[in-house]
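Give me the fold.
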Amino acid sequence: MMEILSQTTQYLTTLSTIFLGIFIEALPYLLLGILASGILEVFVRREFFLKHLPKNRYLGVIFGSFLGLAFPVCEHGVVPLVRRLYNKGLPASMGISFLLAAPVMNPIVIASTLAAFGFGPVFYGRIGLTLIIAILTGLVFTLQKDGEVVKALSQELLFDCQHCNHEIDQALSFKQKLSQAIVISGEEFFDIGLFFIIGAFLAAALQTFIPQSTLLALGGGPMLSILLMIALAVVLSVCSTVDAFLALSFVANFSTGSILAFLVYGPMIDIKAILMFTRVFKKKTILYLALIPLFLVILATLFINFRLSV
């Protein structure tokens, strides 16, 4: 009995420690994304925003994949920001390319990847594959109408916010606008934050009951190692700002392709991100968002593994 109680206590301690680690690591970036969302809502009028977007949907997808350079947010902060951009009238396909690319295509992550791996195949491969996969996935969604991709809630908010922006721009001072942005950010946090917390808890639970050492012991071969590192990225749910240094610890035992699979797919899709997607996208869209990048990452990194082994 005492042994079971001791083991249970140990599991709970490990679970809480890992949960707090994930939560504290990712929370600042979630808050940054939510604050940017509130500022965007209050200070940028929909007409001004739409005027400066590319008119061509295909060019828009490419534009969206580079938009992360202007928003230093990781995968946790980009979701509320994308939802607000949709409310401003951003095409669904452009938002998806931004959503998938931004966690890697931002100055903080580019700098951390460079610091960890230097100029080399991992650095170039991470940026190149992220851009290619984000653009290709975005192009797939140009074949669908925006209403088939984004939840109806975003469409309703779009009209409300258009009216609100007009009143805010005409009637409020800068201080009042800033106060309104903070209020909107607070509402955004309570809406999306719950799913972030649930996702962080699930990621911690998986790490507690499926030890990393068990997953690593299963690795071997060009294909299995890629699948293993993808699974590890999803389970660990490490923020993209620091995942390069974690990946560096695997270099001695894993191929370049599998390291890239970890660094490319993890920032696009993890447990927390999937749960947060439910506040923005329809179920079928979430499935596509998980499977299309997965297929492309496996295909590309498997090619890299075989290419480098020749």
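The longest helix spans residues 2-43.
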